[in-house]
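COURSE: Structural Biology Practicum
ASSIGNMENT: Worksheet 4, Part C
STUDENT ID: 0417
INSTRUCTIONS: Below are two proteins. For each, the amino acid sequence is given first, followed by its structure token string. Answer the questions at the end about the second protein only.

PROTEIN I
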Amino acid sequence: MEILLGIVRFIGVIFLVLLIFNLMIVVHEWGHFLAGRWRGLVIDRFQIWFGKPIWKKTYNGVQYGLGTIPAGGFVSLPQMAPMEAIEGSASDDVKKEPLPPISPLDKIIVAFAGPLFSFLLAVAFAVVVWIVGQPEDQASATTVIGSVAKTMEVGGKEIEGPAWKAGIRPGDDVQYINGHRVNKFLGMNDSINWLVVSAESDDIEVRVLRDGKEMTFVAHAPLPEPEQVDGNLLQKGWNTLSSRRQLRKIGIGPATTPVVAGSLANSPAADVDLKEGDIVTAIDGKPVTTLNEIFDIEFVADKPVEFTVERGKKTHTVTLTPRLPDQPNDYEEALTGIIYNSAGEQKIIHVSPFTLVGDSFRTIVNTLQKVVSPKSAIGADQLSGPVGIMSLYYRLFQHPDGWRLVLWFSIVLNVNLAILNLMPFPVLDGGHIVMSTLEAIRRKPLNFKMLEIVQTAFVILLLGFMAFVTFKDVGDHVPNGSQGESKEPVFLPPGGNS
């Protein structure tokens, strides 16, 4: 029964992901469609997804269809520019007649309408998120360091943690990274994580507050070399195509409250009064405030430990006896079996629509700036296409407040859709605007043959880029041979074989 429910849930989530993803495409193309109708343009087709239609129907001279390639969509406006290379040709049942030319202003209005509708949809999502709220976890919102790695594996090699080597320690409250004020640990824009990974130098200046005093450290964190993958030529080729470059990191993590998320099956914690959401406040009478403090404790096998736990407004204690897991056989650390929520405590916040849309705009612009910067470690291989976006939507839906996160991410994605489509490249809406502006300046249409060549060339580049990011997206979910063998601890039930 559980398997059946799991399958039903999986299908339901996939359906919701596709529904939201296609809603954004439909709204964007609907903007072009309505603007085209308003300006009196001939509309051949309105199609969601690219490729040969698997379904089509002609109504009032317009062929409506659903394509075979689940990426994007289009409104065929033959008076705008030659687009057969990406849209194909209209079917014979769509009436074909010589078409009158249209003004550059009409072209600009129709081209701009798609991004405008995407932006308006982002605003609509932002208003909804403002009303219902969005989850914010402690790990994202804090600026206090909870863990500093003494050693790290980078590019297949173990090195001393850059932050630890520089003198940064747990409890430090980060104020600035490379001179930029920080206001959170995770996320984009002014977060610690973003300012580290997007740094354009190997030396990361970190200014912190420690015991009320401001201190500055410089962590040397060169970009990791690509890992070498063993295997045959096919495996190495797949790794080259699908793997992403590792991003810069200095080995720090956020300080979070020890919140219980569950327990390992058959472990010592499975038999005591612990529930999801409980907060551990003390161990053997010694107060603990961060998860890292618990991780630093070396439990002794068969020696009972008393945990003080806060549940709502009540406090109680539980005693459990750590022991070695049954598998793997070489596991050397005694465990309690408690699973903690690394994100810490969570609350619902209500952010104004202006801030939500503004932050999304900054996120996209900052990302594009880093992608094109020759000094940045963030390149095109860090971007995602439809596969990666739908995968992220699926993961967001797994969160207890997944529907709120999905609404929030839809703001970012629609702003992204608006900005990217306004980029001045042929095939994109921004390219149509640029070419129409040139036509207005020249006071005569651009050469049709030249337009056709340029459009076709950029279609090939666009399809090549889509294939490139799709390989990366698929590679995120397919082992590339560089992952080590998993050694997750397992506790067997009494009488089980070890």
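PROTEIN II
(use this one for the questions)
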Amino acid sequence: MKDKWGIEVTDRNTFQTAMLKSSQEKGWILYMSEKAKVYFSKEISPEKVLEMYQLLGKKLDGKVAIKLHSGEAGNQNFLKPEFWKPVIDYVGGTVVECNTAYEGERNTTAKHKKTLEAHGWSRYFKVDLLDAEGPDLELAIPNGKVIQKNFVGKDLADYDSLLVLSHFKGHPMGGYGGALKQLSIGIASSAGKAYIHGAGKPEDIWTADHDSFLESMADAASSVVDYFKGNAVYVNVMKNMSVDCDCCAVAEDPCMEDMGILISTDPIAIDQACLDLVYASDDPGRDHLLERIESRHGVHTIEAAAALGFGTREYELITVA
């Protein structure tokens, strides 16, 4: 597949090589930001997640918030607590979630707690619904393109470090769901979710300009990254890849074969790497997932995030056996 430069791209590194060669031929001086390191393994298992976390070598100090997706009632694709248990036990943190801003079984504290229990999260781990009690914690976004503040569950202030465990898949509004969605919509309070979806106008939750919504997600993600000041690790697991999110009670079954586990300290790079792996795949279900991503302009969240400068799209993919 060719990108807008007319270059056949299989991954971000191929793109960089082609651009560097072109710049040398034309006498340009091309400046590139330092590449982020993204570790990748085709093996998908609970034990491999822990092994890759240990390989990354990033110690998360103090109280660790572990953000994952609890899964909407009825959803068959979310990654179950047993899958994440080894790494959560090793880190010794608290599973954190926030209530949703739409109808379902997670839009109130009482219903969300029942769903957490039904899905097994409360059985295995200490769980904290960050916005169970108000008022929300307001994070400033001084350089936000669309929104200049983000509303998160007030309990986020109780934590020193963040481990984001993401199930990479499609999404009915964002195009795809990964680390950036978890940082933004995922950590936002119920009211904060409406604020992001509405691009600063909660009353426009489902009708806001689409790119403005995606840019608001990037803005919100930047505020959480800034809040933790580098004390964060991101894991994306490319498994059960449906075009639909784990927030969907009725979701399509996976359309692609499982691809692997990625881990990084850069949320932008890890999401970009996942997109590149999908584009490079010859799986027969690839085009169905890409249609969902492209029709929702999913890459724009990554573009907007990179423009804010809290990470980079340029990465070194390090394959782990």
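ANSWER KEY EXCERPT:
Q1: Residues 36-319 form a domain with the Rossmann fold fold (CATH 3.40.50).
Q2: The chain has two domains: 1-32, 36-319.
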